[in-house]
Amino acid sequence: MDNQPRVFHKSASRNMTRTLRNAQRVATILLGLCVPFLLILLVWDLMANPSPVPAVVTIAGLVMLCFFFSYVFVVPDDLTSSATDRTLSIASKIFVHTRKGMTPDAAMGACQIILPETLASAMCITDGKQVLASWGEGCERYPTGQPVVLDTTLNVVSSKVMSVFSRDANDTREREFFPRLRAGIVAPLTVRDRCVGTLELYYPRFSNIDMRQTALATGFADLISTQLASFELERQSEVSARVELRALQSQVDPHFLFNTIGTIVSLVRTEPEKARSLLIDFSNYYRQTLSDSESLTTLEREVEQGIRYINLMQARYGEGRLKVETRIDPDTVECKVPPFILQPLLENCVKHAMREVEPLSIFVLSRTTARGLEIVVADDGIGMSEKVQQHLFDAPEASRPDEPETVTADGSIKHGCGIALCNVLMRIHFFFGEDSGIKVESKEGQGTAITVALIGEPHEPAPAPSLLPASN
Questions:
Q1: Which stretches of 302-394 are assigned E, i.e. beta strand?
Q2: Which distant-in-sequence residues (6+ apart) come within 8 Å of 31 by Cβ?
């Protein structure tokens, strides 16, 4: 293959605009000189020679100048506006396909949009290792999944520099792909200075490639690269959130674990049936806790998990010391909710609201609203001051760095309610977005009410598709 690499400079478009503006200035100066001259000539002819012929010629000249003026100053702006609208429309259409990464389907959609905007006969998009999609003349010879063997593609992936090439007619191996097309442009797709693929345009002859074609190839490649970079940032943010959710979910408090087992063991001889029931609750509780935290669950399952926790706590303190009442609207039991949002709120009630001797009552209710679903967890415990409420969602380590480690009522280590609330809020935002959230109302000595507002439809993340595999 006889490669002839050329680099397209992005300043070409800027230079074209500057040239157009300079032409408009020159036209303005010429118009300013010619119009007064023609007017003087018209007056002189009318005074010196009453014949209408010179006057008609002069007026015709003025009319032509007016048409010239309109072309120079009006038409280019209209053309520029039309081109801008078309560019934005194309970009919007490509974004519809590539917003979820460059999958084969997305690549095919982009090819079908881009190819008609060029003079190329065929095009393809690769991930640097294999073809993602090809479209146009001879595309059946270059199908999805075909390994990349073209030297130009491999060189562009390595150098990250656009290449314009012509093929050697004697190179039969490379002529197997788009056999009638003997020239082309290969532009790199880059994300954070890493080449993740190529956009390739193929032409019958090298003479078909000019500055406009190289500009189009570079522009479309940059557009797709920008969209891929945006998608990668979004995907990394989602992956980071998933990792944090898994980390929070996997934090099994050993004190709670050992104290619960001790409670069950103490009942084995005196109340074997109750011990058996608690053991089942305990097993189901941890099975649910250690299950998938990345999929939505139903409100019914969340309530069941919360009741399991309360059953274990009632075994420890006695049913007279800890009471729970649920008022779940039947219309909400099948509503999709983030996993592990109810049990941490119940856990906070036990840890932070229970008094020394008096019983604690907890109320759990759900209701539909005009905007979505609300879940309320309220208690009649000790409540909290306004100062404490101001720091509920602060990082616990930052807000109380010197707080001594103490064991709470349920046998776990006291870290402050910030961990539980931040955990729940993170799950809510992960699945429902920033508009949903938590509202806390509390008065000292009277109790606390926490309202979880889930607004709109949930977003259940699918397994994140690959961006474009990094090339070696």
A1: 322-328, 336-337, 360-368, 372-379
A2: 65, 68, 69
CA-nearest of 135, 85, 80 to 105 is 135
Task: Residue 126: count other Cβ atoms within 10 Å of its Cβ.
Answer: 30
Cβ distance 101 to 466 under 8 Å? yes
pLDDT tens-place string over residues 94-130: 877 777 777 888 889 989 888 888 889 999 999 888 9
The string of DSSP codes covering 65-83 is HHHHHHHHHTHHHHHHHHH
Cβ distance 113 to 86 under 8 Å?
A: no
pLDDT of 83 above 80: no
Distance CA 263, CA 259 (A): 6
Residue 265, number of CB atoms within 10 A of its CB? 11
User: Rounded to an integer, what distance in angstroms lies between the CA atom of residue 168 and that of residue 182?
Assistant: 8
Buried b (16+ CB within 10 A) or exposed e, 360-393: bbbbbbbeeeeebbbbbbbbbbbbbeeebeeebb
* R_g of the chain computed on alpha carbons: 36
**What type of residue sits at position 307?**
I
**For residues 2 and 167, is the Cβ–Cβ distance under 8 A?**
yes
**E strands, 106-245, where?**
122-126, 131-136, 163-166, 183-191, 194-203
**Residue environment code for 333-358, b if the CB has 16+ CB neighbours within 10 A, otherwise e:** eebbbbbbbbbbbbbbbbbbbbeeee
Other C-beta atoms lying within 10 Å of the C-beta of residue 196: 25
Rounded to the nearest 10 degrees, what angle do helices 418-432 and 343-352 cross at? Answer: 160
Measured in whole angstroms, the distance separating CA 390 from the mean position of its chain's CA atoms is 31
The residue ranges of DSSP E strands in 30-154, in sequence order, are: 122-126, 131-136
Element (H, E) at 59: helix 52-73
Rounded to 5°, the CA angle 353-357-363 comes to 40
Dist CA 188 CA 272 (whole Å): 70
Provide DSSP, 224-254. HHHHHHHHHHHHHHHHHHHHHHHHHHT---H
Q: Residue 239 — very low, low, confident or very high, per pLDDT cuts 50/70/90?
A: low
Tally of CB atoms within 10 A around 437: 17
What is the predicted pLDDT for the residue at 258? 75
Single-letter code of the amino acid located at 366 = S
Q: Model's pTM, two decimal places?
A: 0.51
